[in-house]
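Page 37, continued from 36.
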């Protein structure tokens, strides 16, 4: 093993990721897109158990995400304890009831109507695991973290892809406000709740909205070199 190269006094190592011929690059991109295009947010969960090792591996995958100054400003709290899941459900439903009965504007409620959501969140008890993602404003010795929202968002994106790839389903749940999660899970001051993600298998009868994703032309603009 060769010694690391020092740049500005810090170690760097040679990086040689696996690459593929152009035709295989194309096929791998299409295959991955086709698989991820099947992913849906699910509210109908089975109570079928999921091994802790699987959840650990999903968290490890999420933690490979890039982050501002490599501070990795995230904490993943994995909850399978039924009593704690019950507490989380009750607190979430309390906030959501208030949201649906006064906090949310009519426009917001109208936007949610096609998704058939309401304040009731039984999946928070049914799903075998709840993964609560916290964003860290600072690290040990109050070291400042940078681009925290962007970094944690990237980690959550990889997490959702990993969950789908493993043959499981998930939901990005954002009861607002979410401070009750910090209190229930006894998280320190610099951390704030970012996402609440139930993880598990879909129920035998699992319904999802028949949504359509935007076309490529609606989400992308290309600026290509001209010949």
């Amino acid at each position: 093993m060769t010694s690391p190269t020092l740049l500005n006094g810090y170690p760097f190592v040679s990086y040689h990721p696996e690459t593929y011929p152009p035709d295989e690059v194309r096929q791998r991109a299409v295959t991955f897109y086709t698989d991820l295009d099947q992913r849906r947010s699910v509210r109908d969960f089975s109570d079928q158990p999921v091994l802790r090792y699987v959840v650990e591996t999903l968290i490890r995958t999420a933690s490979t995400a890039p982050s501002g100054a490599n501070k990795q400003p995230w904490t993943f709290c994995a909850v399978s304890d039924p009593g704690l899941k019950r507490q989380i459900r009750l607190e979430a439903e309390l906030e959501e009831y208030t949201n649906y009965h006064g906090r949310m504007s009519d426009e917001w409620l109208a936007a949610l109507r096609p998704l058939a959501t309401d304040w009731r969140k039984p999946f928070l008890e049914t799903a075998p695991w709840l993964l609560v993602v916290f964003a860290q404003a600072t690290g040990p010795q109050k070291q400042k973290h940078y681009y925290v929202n962007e970094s944690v968002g990237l980690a959550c994106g990889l997490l959702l892809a990993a969950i789908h790839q493993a043959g499981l389903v998930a939901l990005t749940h954002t009861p607002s406000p979410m401070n009750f999660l910090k209190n229930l899970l006894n998280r320190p001051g610099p951390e704030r709740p970012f996402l609440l993600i139930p993880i598990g298998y879909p129920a035998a009868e699992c319904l999802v909205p028949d949504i359509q994703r935007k076309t490529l032309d609606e989400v992308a603009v290309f600026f290509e070199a001209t010949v």
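The helical segments are 22-36, 52-62, 82-103, 106-112, 123-126, 148-165, 179-184, 216-219. Flag for discussion at group meeting. The chain has one domain: 42-201.
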